[in-house]
Amino acid sequence: MAATGADAPVDIGRYEAAAQPYVDRVLALGAKQYSDLISTVVEDGKDKTLQWVDLVMAGGGMLGIAHVGATYVFEKAGLRFHNIGGASAGAINAALVVTKRGEKPDAPSSLNTLRLMANFDFRKFQDDKDSKALWDFAQQAMADGKLSNWEKAQGAWQGLRQKGHLQEVWNRLGLHPGDFFESWIKGQMSDGGLATVRALNQRLKLDSIDSLKIRDGAASATTLDDVRQGKMVLIASDITTQTKAEFPEHAKLYWDNPEDVHPGIFVRASMSVPGFFTPVTITKLPSGPAAEANWQKVGFSKAAADKAWAEAAAAKAAKLAAAHKPVEAPESLKVHLVDGGILSNFPINAFHLPSVPLLPTFGVRFGRNRETHSGYADSTTPLDFAMSLFESSRHILDRDFINKNPDYTQLITNIDDTGFGWLDFNLPNDRKVALFAAGAKAAAEFLERFDWAKYKDTRKFLLDARTTSKAAPGAPMAQSAAAPAAPITPERKKAKVAT
């Protein structure tokens, strides 16, 4: 694949060298425990214990390169991924993890993903050259502080050239069709044997791992049979029915034969940044009692929507007829799917269970917190104001879950993305290496501080508190009296905790 811009091709050894200090740090941790679901592989003639975790990755556009660095270090530490999911860039890496590990679910994937990514020209994802020219100019103008001079800088000839093009962009609801990305991700997954949801679900099974077992002494209600079928959750935002679509589980809402759908379309939907990429549009939804029952489960009545849609179409037809204008055949209800980050950019709750876990759900996100990052709040430009609205909406729901389940703060690592643009498709190779290393660093620091025994104690403490609260009707709702990462002491057990 072509190198980015004028950069010379870079060997993956450069990426590995950048991550090596962090690999050394996790290897120095030795046999540290991260999970109670384990298996064994033979490596260099010796048995090696693998530990299984769930993994959720946040959206972030080009920042997703850092996800590859994080998974690289996780795998070097002997971790493998049971359930896996994410939104946008996180969805892309989740799909590639399952694809690139091949038919053996305990095989590492990140080195294969790195080979794919190292010299890939990400500008190809911008598959409309005129839109790319506009976007590149806007990026440079913002960097130079000259966005107000847009029209002057463009020049009269380019403005005339863009006139028809802007109408095309308006009609398709995005600067770029997204066709190249869709073809690319489908090609990667098909080449890896994952051309259908059926094949994907089969690949997620752990039945082929004979050595899979629960660690001796583990105290969890989860059994080995409960975890033999892994799960993938890729988030997309259905802006028509206002549904947080979780694929492949929700494929039955949108397709008549969900098992035959190519899972690459879920990734394409999840990364469809509104206005930047054309949304994935489903023009014919399943109908009938079974379809209605499926929609009812997500709090939506397709039958009622179909009726309202038909009534609106009839009213429009009557108005056109009265004006002696051509009446088009009415369309059926159609759905637009866009970037999953709109509703849930960091779906850390995707694999949440209320019980004491057998394995943890590790979360990887990008590190701009509300206290130290002012974002776009100080800007007075309409573009920055719009970006502030977008950033707020994509984080609020996930933050709400974490606020209500503060124990999850023990499971999350933040990648430092300072100085990187999430839609910078012109990223040169040295910056890509730096992003990869940032992900590796965040993963190493997280594994160094993560305490599996303490986390299980926290979850057991919270579970006991909920059980006690339910057993005493009328008792006041318990509130958290200590930080979730604090040790479980006899004194703390007497305190009230969040339910």
From TrEMBL:
Tree of life domain: Eukaryota
Gene Ontology molecular function terms on file: carboxylic ester hydrolase activity; lipase activity
Group of enzyme by EC: hydrolase
EC number: 3.1.1.-
Motif GXGXXG positions after renumbering to this chain: 59-64
Motif (DGA/G): 339-341
Biased composition (Low complexity): 472-486
Motif (GXSXG): 86-90
Residues covered by region (Disordered): 472-499
GO biological process: lipid catabolic process
Keywords: Hydrolase, Lipid degradation, Lipid metabolism
Record-annotated active site: S88 (nucleophile), D339 (proton acceptor)
PNPLA domain boundaries: 55-352
Similarity comment text for this entry: Belongs to the patatin family.
Function: Lipolytic acyl hydrolase (LAH).
This protein's domain notes: The nitrogen atoms of the two glycine residues in the GGXR motif define the oxyanion hole, and stabilize the oxyanion that forms during the nucleophilic attack by the catalytic serine during substrate cleavage.
The protein, known as: Patatin
